[in-house]
Amino acid sequence: MASVSELSCIYAALILHDDDVPVTEDKINALIKAAGVVVEPFWPGLFAKALANINIGSLICNVGAGGGGAPAPGGASAGSAASTAAPAEEKKVEEKKEEIGRAHV
User: Fold this and answer.
1) How far apart are CA 6 and CA 39, in angstroms?
2) Which H, E and C letters describe the chain, residue by residue?
3) pLDDT at residue 73, rounded to an integer
4) How far apart are CA 65 and CA 62, in angstroms?
5) Over the stretch 18-63, which tens digit does the pLDDT of each residue have?
């Protein structure tokens, strides 16, 4: 789990990015000081250097975009099995709706 110091730097960097302000050690320190949080002194500089050449917007948008998991046993992925079952179930729902509609006529 992240420490208070790490989280403070992360939130400060996100605030700066959201306001289109360059993420620097001084700016991170200013936000942390304004929030009244005490952090270990090396964290703001570390975060500023780590994010210096990073597109933070792209990083945020691709948080969950990993390489994908291993395929499910049997050669088919779980997603493909679910996608083949979904159309059959949709068809059943449509047929039920049609039967209900005919019964009310």
Assistant:
1) 8
2) CCCHHHHHHHHHHHHHHHCCCCCCHHHHHHHHHHHCCCCCCHHHHHHHHHCCCCCHHHHHHCCCCCCCCCCCCCCCCHHHHHHHHHHHHHHHHHHHHHHHHHHCC
3) 60
4) 5
5) 999 999 999 999 999 999 999 999 999 999 999 999 899 888 888 7
Q: Exposed/middle/buried for 25, CB within 10 Å: 0-12, 13-18, 19+? A: middle
Contact 12, 28 (CB under 8 A): yes
Hey, what are 50's tokens?
A: 């780590």
Looking at the predicted structure, is the pLDDT value of residue 72 above 70? no
Q: Which two tokens stand for residue 12?
A: 């400060």
- The pTM is what? 0.58
Amino acid, res. 7: L
